[in-house]
């Protein structure tokens, strides 16, 4: 009989549907997979670790912590309350209150969010007595950054609240937590941050805490962050910042024998303490929006300019390596170098040798454009096509760490540029270009771009006669050896023997009576270096200087870059030698030069550009 | 024969009894898990809920013995009287009832409350069995159909007025019983079409539903005009009549839903239909119960290991949402097993019912299957998020004395009737 079957059929049908639904919910659908952390039955309390301290190479404290008190909120636990009194207590407006609650709720109604950051110690005392009346709010102690030296903001960086994108990428962080967002704070975040402690508390549907979850089986204690010792010399760093007052630019000093960065100055800068505390975001916005001074730009790492004359050293080394010149080869210079038939095909030169033979040594200390243009052309023309020539030349230049991000431990950087043959094939699509089209490369103009840290590293490689260590900022990290890549030398493609004559030339830049940096000579110190002027079509030329000292057994290699500083020996040269003097001797024998640098300002020049 | 009749256990279906005790046992351990807290452990402590449930389970034994002591004939003979007694008890609630959670469904005797509607199901099942088993009764006739529907209508309307519409919905299950006994199939068809139109109208809105059904109707009309002109001439009134009735139904669904239903009723439907996603407020129960079940995974978290259960995250977990405890602590394995047990249990009753020589016993058996089935479908469907929130208990599992005793009475009257078939003539 048909009628008997209907109910049986429905019973079995429903049974199958329900089992299928359960299978979907419990087995297939992973979105419900509840780890303990996502479980609303368990309240998670974090115990924040103290962030690691940062010291300079001599143990001077650069970054410390101070205690701070944050007001936290768990939105779903907030009960109707006297909002006006609450706002008055925290010194916020009602609008701010609503906005903060909404932000926190949007993130999660269950997980605690920071409601108000960094309440002062005085406020904390009064808050603590009354806050229990406002359900859902509590105070959390946290340590805050403090920068006793008020310097090296670009090196140290800052920490700020994680944003939503970061949270999505890294579930370790929760809303309101702090993360290193620039400088060492960023690049060594993992080392410095430590590990949060977690407490799980079982609670019921009414959010009443009913005891420790599984007797604290999953609870952990916070582990403090590790301290870091930097390669920076705080005294030198501060000295560099003082010398660069009222100027724009960057200084990078490296210890050639290790690749350790001794100083990394960027101007204009700011007091790192501005990035701490309740005014942090206000201060940050102000700095961020300053399009004129760009204080957040690390000019030592991010500013790319044509290097100018210091790059002639590379031109010389490549020509020696490619056997197209010898130390004895010489040319005559009559105020410039003519490389074509047209009137424009003329490179002016101010070496003032007026026809007397110019060999490598003279070319370096007089910075003769004609000499290096000739040498460059000989290198390129050695190869069947200019493309091959430029590529070989570029490879040599790149072996000094130019044209590439130095694979370092700094949070920002720029690639710079070393042109290759393909670039010119693009510029001259018919393929008919010759070595002369690229002739400005020889003297560090044209398509060549470098950053101050690249120049400093190049200087270190020259000082070492053919190798360098990747410049790095961390010297010691508690419990962890330095990454091997920072202790392995990287060799350039230039043979060691070619460095000697070039270094002699750089030495004569100071020592020869006609050397271009004769005026920056320091009594009792053997310095080698090279002045530079970077042509700037938008305004006054930039002042550049590279140097290392002592010439034999170098302890410091430095690159100085002063925006719109006219020419190399006007600002960059004296600053570089003062830095060297300060680092090697600890005192300054030229107080007048020092005073002129510290007091000197190029602000007038900068103001001109605004018009 | 007398001695066999004196043994009240003679002829009873031990398999159903076994099912009963398995359910009671599983139900209690889950109530235990859902209500235990860290500091108390005292099985017979009357202040704990699992303790109370254990006492109520204990009281089931004398109730069962009492039911088995009566002759099967007794139930058939006194069915109408029992039915009327319970109608009076239901009506009496409006005067003497105690209001718990917004509905006046309880008689309070000291600290103890009884819910007569839990027992009215058995009384109604007896009354229907008595009415329909009459040799003169023919469900093909409209008059008798009305008689049967009125018999169901009285308890249902009294329960709706308490108000406890969820419990009243269970009486819709009797349509399967009446169909089994000869009610024309179109009652079932109309029932399902109405349910279908109801859901479609809520999802699409009545304008879209009306227009698309009109298009469908015109197509059917054209089909008849061109290909079946004779049938069309004969039956056009019927076709148009059906459409007009559907249209009116669609319209009234919208009217009732938007103007008669209260917001919380609407919300319950909207959650199931995926139109509302507010999981903090209205959808909280469903969200919590589904999440809790899903968190159990394949093997479950183990007895007393479900943190959502231990944290009392699911409202009403020990009563209407007891299945979430099964889901969380025993996982897919455990919850699928419970469903399989229920299906087997229901099929077993159908099997026994079909073997009854007495029509009364068979109809009563079908009635209790339909009632258990309705509870099963609505309760578990609600807990796993397939059916709107309708608060009715899961038989033998949910916490509460009245419900437990009501289901026990329901089942054991059938076991008594079934045991009798051996010496029926
Ligand atoms: Zn010259």
Overview in brief:
The complex is a heterodimer of chains A (611) and B (425). Chain A is an alpha+beta fold.
Note down, in words, how this protein is organized.
- The complex is a heterodimer of chains A (611) and B (425).
- Chain A is an alpha+beta fold.
- Chain A has two domains: 188 residues, Alpha-Beta Complex (Penicillin-binding protein 2a (Domain 2)); 355 residues, Beta-lactamase (3-Layer(aba) Sandwich).
- Helix content of chain A is 34%, strand content 18%.
- In chain A, strands 2, 3, 4, 5, 10 and 16 form a six-stranded mixed β-sheet that branches. A five-stranded antiparallel β-sheet of chain A has the order 12-11-20-19-18.
- In chain A, helix 12 crosses helix 14.
- The longest helix of chain A is centred in the first third of the chain and has 24 residues.
- Chain A is elongated and about 115 Å long.
- The N and C termini of chain A lie far apart (101 Å).
- Chain B folds into two domains: 328 residues, no CATH class; 70 residues.
- Chain B has 17 helices and three strands.
- A three-stranded antiparallel β-sheet of chain B has the order 1-2-3, with helices on one face.
- Chain B is globular and about 70 Å long.
- Chains A and B meet through helix 1 of A and helix 8, helix 13, helix 14, helix 15 and helix 16 of B.
- The site of zinc ion has 7 residues of chain A, from helix 14.
């Amino acid at each position: 009989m048909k009628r008997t079957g209907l109910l049986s059929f429905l019973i079995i049908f429903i049974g199958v549907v329900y089992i299928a639904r359960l299978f979907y919910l419990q087995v297939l659908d992973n979105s419900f997979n509840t780890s303990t952390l996502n479980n609303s039955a368990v309240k998670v309390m974090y115990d924040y670790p103290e962030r690691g301290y940062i010291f300079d190479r001599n143990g001077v404290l650069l970054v410390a912590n101070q205690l701070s008190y944050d007001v936290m909120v768990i939105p779903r636990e907030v009960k109707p309350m006297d909002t006006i009194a609450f706002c008055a207590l925290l010194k916020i407006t009602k609008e701010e209150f609503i906005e903060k609650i909404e932000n926190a709720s949007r993130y999660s109604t269950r997980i605690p969010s920071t409601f108000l950051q960094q309440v002062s110690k005085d406020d904390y005392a009064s808050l603590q007595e009354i806050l229990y009346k406002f359900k859902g709010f509590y105070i959390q102690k946290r340590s805050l950054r403090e920068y006793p030296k008020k310097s090296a903001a670009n090196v140290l960086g800052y920490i700020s609240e994680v944003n939503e994108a970061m949270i999505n990428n890294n579930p370790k962080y929760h809303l309101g937590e702090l993360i290193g967002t620039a400088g060492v704070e960023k690049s060594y975040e993992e080392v410095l941050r430590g590990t949060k402690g977690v407490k799980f508390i079982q609670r019921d549907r009414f959010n009443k805490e009913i005891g420790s979850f599984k007797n604290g089986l999953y609870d952990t204690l916070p582990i403090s962050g590790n301290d870091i010792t930097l390669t920076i010399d705080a005294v030198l760093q501060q000295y560099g910042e003082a010398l660069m007052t009222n100027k724009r630019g960057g200084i990078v000093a490296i210890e050639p024998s290790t690749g350790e960065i001794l100083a990394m100055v960027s101007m204009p800068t700011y007091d790192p303490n501005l990035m701490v505390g309740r005014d942090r975001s206000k201060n940050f916005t102000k700095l961020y929006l300053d399009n004129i001074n760009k204080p957040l730009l690390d000019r030592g790492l991010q500013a790319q300019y044509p290097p100018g004359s210091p790059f002639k050293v590379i031109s010389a080394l490549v020509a020696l390596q490619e056997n197209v010149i010898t130390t004895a080869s010489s040319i005559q210079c009559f105020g410039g170098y003519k490389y074509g038939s047209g009137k424009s095909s003329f490179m002016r030169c101010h070496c003032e040798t007026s026809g007397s033979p110019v060999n490598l040594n003279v070319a370096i200390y007089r910075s003769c454009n004609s000499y290096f243009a000739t040498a460059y052309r000989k290198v390129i023309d050695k190869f069947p096509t200019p493309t091959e020539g430029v590529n070989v030349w570029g490879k040599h230049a790149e072996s000094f760490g130019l044209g590439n991000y130095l694979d370092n431990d700094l949070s920002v950087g720029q690639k710079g540029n070393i042109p290759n043959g393909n670039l010119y094939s693009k510029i001259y699509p018919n393929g008919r270009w010759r070595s002369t089209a690229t002739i400005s490369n020889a003297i560090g103009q044209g398509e060549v771009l470098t950053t101050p840290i690249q120049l400093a590293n190049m200087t270190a490689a020259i000082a070492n006669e053919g190798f360098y260590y990747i410049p790095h900022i961390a010297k010691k990290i508690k419990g962890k050896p330095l990454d091997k890549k920072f202790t392995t030398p990287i060799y350039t493609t230039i043979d060691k023997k070619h460095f000697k004559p070039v270094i002699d030339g750089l030495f004569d830049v100071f020592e020869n009576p006609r050397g271009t940096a004769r005026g920056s000579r320091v009594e009792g110190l053997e310095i080698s270096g090279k002045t530079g002027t970077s042509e700037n079509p938008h305004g006054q030329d930039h002042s550049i200087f590279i140097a290392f000292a002592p010439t034999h057994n170098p302890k410091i290699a430095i690159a100085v870059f002063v925006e719109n500083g006219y020419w190399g020996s006007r600002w960059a040269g004296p600053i570089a030698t003062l830095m060297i003097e300060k680092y090697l001797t600890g005192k300054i024998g030229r107080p007048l030069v020092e005073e002129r640098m510290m007091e000197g300002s190029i602000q007038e020049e900068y103001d001109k550009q605004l018009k | 024969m007398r001695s066999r009749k004196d043994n009240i256990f003679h002829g009873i279906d031990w398999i159903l009894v076994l099912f009963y005790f398995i359910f009671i046992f599983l139900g209690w351990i889950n109530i235990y898990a859902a209500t235990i807290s860290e500091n108390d452990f005292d099985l017979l402590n009357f202040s704990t809920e699992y303790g109370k449930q254990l006492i109520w389970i204990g009281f089931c034994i004398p109730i069962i013995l009492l039911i088995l002591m009566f002759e099967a004939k007794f139930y058939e003979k006194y069915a109408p009287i029992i039915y009327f007694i319970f109608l009076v008890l239901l009506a009496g609630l409006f005067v003497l009832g105690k209001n718990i959670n917004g509905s006046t469904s309880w008689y309070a005797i000291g600290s103890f409350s009884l819910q007569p509607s839990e027992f009215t199901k058995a009384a109604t099942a007896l009354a229907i069995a008595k009415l329909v088993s009459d040799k003169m009764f023919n469900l093909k006739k409209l008059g008798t159909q009305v008689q049967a529907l009125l018999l169901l209508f009285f308890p249902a309307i009294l329960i709706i007025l308490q108000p406890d519409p969820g419990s009243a919905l269970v009486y819709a299950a009797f349509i399967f019983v009446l169909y089994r006994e000869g009610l024309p199939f179109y009652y079932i068809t109309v029932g399902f079409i109405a349910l279908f139109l109801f859901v479609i109208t809520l999802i699409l809105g009545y304008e879209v539903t009306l227009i698309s059904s009109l298009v469908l109707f015109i197509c059917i009309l054209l089909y008849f005009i061109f290909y079946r002109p004779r049938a069309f001439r004969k039956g056009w009134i019927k076709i148009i009549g059906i459409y007009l009735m559907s249209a009116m139904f669609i319209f009234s669904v919208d009217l009732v839903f938007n103007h008669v239903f209260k917001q919380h009723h609407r919300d319950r439907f909207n959650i199931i239909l995926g139109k509302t996603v507010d999981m903090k407020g209205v959808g909280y129960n469903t969200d919590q119960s589904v999440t809790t079940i899903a968190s159990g995974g394949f093997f479950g978290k183990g007895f007393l290991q479900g943190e959502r259960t231990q944290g009392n995250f699911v409202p009403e977990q020990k009563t209407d949402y007891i299945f979430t405890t099964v889901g969380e602590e025993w996982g897919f394995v455990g919850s699928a097993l419970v469903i399989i047990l229920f299906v087997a249990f229901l099929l077993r009753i159908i099997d026994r019912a079909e073997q009854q020589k007495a029509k009364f016993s068979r109809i009563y058996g079908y009635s209790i299957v339909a009632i258990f089935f309705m509870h099963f479908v609505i309760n578990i469907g609600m807990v796993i998020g397939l059916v709107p929130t309708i608060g009715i208990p899961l038989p033998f599992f949910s916490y509460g004395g009245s419900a437990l005793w009501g289901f026990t009475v329901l089942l054991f009257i059938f076991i008594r009737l079934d045991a009798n078939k051996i010496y029926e003539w």
